[in-house]
Amino acid sequence: MAKEIERKFLVKDDSWRNLAEGKVYCQGYIPTQKGATVRVRIVGNQAYLTIKGPSVKYSRSEFEYPIPIADAEEMLDTLCSRPLIEKIRYRVEYGGLIWEIDEFDGVNKGLIIAEVELSDEQQQIELPIWIGEEVSDDPKYFNSNLVKHPFSQW
Q: What phi, psi does 99 have (nearest 5°)?
């Protein structure tokens, strides 16, 4: 089984910006039950369908599959809850790890979150100077919840 182990942090300044270029993401969530999420995502000219299980601490099962762009566009238009998640994702290497920084747009504009994937939950990490408060345990920062409760409405 595929497993994602990830920690999330707010970003407190822009000193990371000169370290990476971003890619535009558009993603949506198909409504589910029992804590699972089904995500449809388009990044450039690639599309993916991702199924994630419920989170337990920093971990959850994750299964991701490439799909045709036309299928993803149809799913985003007809199956996904609104609003769609619009963001630019930047990748920054720091301390031997890849940090993914999401700068949200649309109804979540103003929110910037950094995520780092780990090999195990106990892995020690060195935090970059631009990292702020950890929000790994706060579900309001999950992308799937930003659809239901956008940042602009907090």
A: -100, 130
Count of Cβ atoms closer than 10 Å to residue 85 Cβ: 23
Low-confidence ranges of the chain (pLDDT < 70): 1
Handedness of CA 73, 76, 77, 82 (dihedral sign): negative
Q: What whole-number distance in Å separates Cα of residue 139 and Cα of residue 59?
A: 13
- 90 noted as active-site residue: no
Residues with Cβ within 8 Å of residue 154, at least 6 apart in sequence: 140
High-pLDDT (> 90) share of the chain, %: 88
Reported as type and span, the H/E element at residue 50 is strand 46-52
3-state secondary structure at position 47: strand
Q: Which of 29, 58, 94, 141 is catalytic?
A: 29
